[in-house]
């Protein structure tokens, strides 16, 4: 039985991870579960999966969780506790499914003691990619991608030599506003942005999919995971979300991974790698799908994708600032403080106003730059009102 720690178990990826675990109880055992504030679901999950420990980030919910669970389950709260369970000695696989930059420290904590990490938390790689690479070199820790596009690339690249790869091609559904004229972007409401045509995900990634920032973050994630230069990572819009990504090899052959859009598949592959599990979920029927279409992304209509490429190319603190500004603007949009079309404007302005120097050498430097960028973004948001 593989012993798992699930960071962010109450989220969309966390819940689907536990669905896979439920389908294969003889294969997996849950050691620890974590949430930020959804204590009721955390308690429900703990009653079902009997972990040794749970972490509720926000201390105000600690007494409720403690009271609801039997004494055998250890209950902790706070960020340090997240890092502690992420490096739990018995854990064999840590599922990193916290949303946003908040996942960086626990993910680093797991990697720095050599754990294998099933990584959904792309923001950790975007902001801490170089640091994560250094830590992995030191400890030999492995990352198994959970993001469907990166899982597709990982599956296709298996057994091939890195030097034979000429291009990585990431597919993108295009989000709910693919066909919406740009002039209407100022009227888009959070409710509209939260209706993704293909995937049911957490709120932040759903808005990122609508601006195409999600694809931009995935381009940086692909660069960090597979070491391919940005000029050889492409994005293609594929509204049906059946082809999850492709690799072109130097002989001109292009290989793809296809399946129905269902996150349980890439999650299960990361959980059981290198084995493939006999998953009990619906299968792809190509004659029912009928048509697969592809088109080039519109960088002018979706400037977040362009900014992410540029930040990735520049490296250093650029991805940290891009991500911090994005997290702040998405939160501001969801709370009704700014318009949808303000999102790229605030991010661009934050990047313009930030005084960049040097490269992030440590976690503390990343956290400091993240904090400064968030303050700048909030200031810009205030000026816009
Ligand atoms: N959803 C998908 O299909 C999908 C696909 C590919 C990649 N991803 C990536 O996977 C990650 C998770 O996405 P999601 O859609 O599952 O997000 P989500 O539904 O919003 O869930 C986020 C999880 O993280 C916890 N959390 C939130 N803020 C936290 C903090 N500051 N510290 C510690 N824990 C915190 C949440 O706890 P509470 O429930 O208590 O708030 C929840 O368990 C993201 O990086 C996303 O880009 C998601």
From TrEMBL:
Catalyzes the NADPH-dependent rearrangement and reduction of 1-deoxy-D-xylulose-5-phosphate (DXP) to 2-C-methyl-D-erythritol 4-phosphate (MEP). Belongs to the DXR family. NCBIfam families: Dxr (TIGR00243), PRK12464.1 (NF009114). The gene is dxr. Keywords: Isomerase, Isoprene biosynthesis, Magnesium, Manganese, Metal-binding, NADP, Oxidoreductase. This is 1-deoxy-D-xylulose 5-phosphate reductoisomerase. The keyword Glycosyltransferase does not apply. 1-deoxy-D-xylulose 5-phosphate binds at residues 122, 148-149, 173, 196, 209, 214-215, 218.
């Amino acid at each position: 039985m593989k012993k798992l720690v699930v960071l962010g178990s109450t989220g969309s990826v966390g819940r689907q991870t536990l669905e896979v675990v439920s389908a294969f109880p003889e294969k997996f055992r849950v050691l620890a579960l974590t949430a930020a504030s959804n204590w009721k679901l955390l308690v429900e999950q703990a009653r079902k999966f009997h972990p040794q420990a749970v972490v509720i980030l926000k201390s105000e919910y600690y007494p409720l969780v403690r009271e609801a669970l039997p004494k055998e389950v250890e209950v902790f709260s706070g960020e340090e506790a997240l890092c502690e369970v992420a490096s739990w000695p018995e854990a064999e696989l840590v599922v990193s499914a916290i949303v946003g930059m908040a996942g960086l420290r626990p993910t680093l904590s797991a990697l720095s003691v050599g754990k294998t990490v099933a990584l959904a938390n792309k923001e950790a790689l975007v902001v801490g990619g170089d640091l994560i690479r250094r830590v992995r070199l030191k400890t030999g820790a492995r990352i198994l991608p959970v993001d469907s596009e990166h899982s597709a690339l990982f599956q296709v690249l298996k057994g091939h030599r890195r030097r034979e790869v000429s291009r990585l091609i990431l597919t993108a559904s295009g989000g709910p506003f693919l066909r919406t004229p740009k002039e209407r972007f100022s009227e888009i409401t959070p409710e509209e942005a939260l209706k993704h045509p293909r995937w049911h995900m957490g709120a932040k990634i759903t808005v990122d999919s609508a601006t195409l920032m999600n694809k931009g973050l995935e381009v940086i994630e692909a660069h960090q995971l597979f070491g391919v230069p940005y000029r050889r990572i492409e994005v293609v819009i594929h509204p049906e979300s059946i082809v999850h990504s492709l690799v072109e090899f130097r002989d001109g052959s292009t290989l793809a991974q296809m399946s129905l859009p269902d996150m349980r598949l890439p999650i299960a592959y990361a959980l059981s790698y290198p084995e493939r599990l006999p998953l009990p979920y619906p299968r792809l029927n190509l004659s029912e799908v009928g048509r697969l279409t592809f088109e080039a992304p519109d960088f002018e209509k979706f400037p977040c994708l362009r900014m992410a490429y540029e930040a990735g190319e520049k490296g250093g603190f650029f991805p940290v600032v891009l991500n911090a500004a994005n997290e702040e603007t998405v939160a501001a949009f969801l709370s009704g403080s700014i318009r949808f079309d303000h999102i790229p404007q605030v991010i661009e302005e934050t990047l313009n106003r930030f005084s960049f120097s040097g490269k992030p050498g440590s976690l503390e430097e990343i956290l400091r730059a993240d904090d400064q960028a968030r303050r700048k973004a909030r200031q810009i948001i205030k000026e816009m009102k």
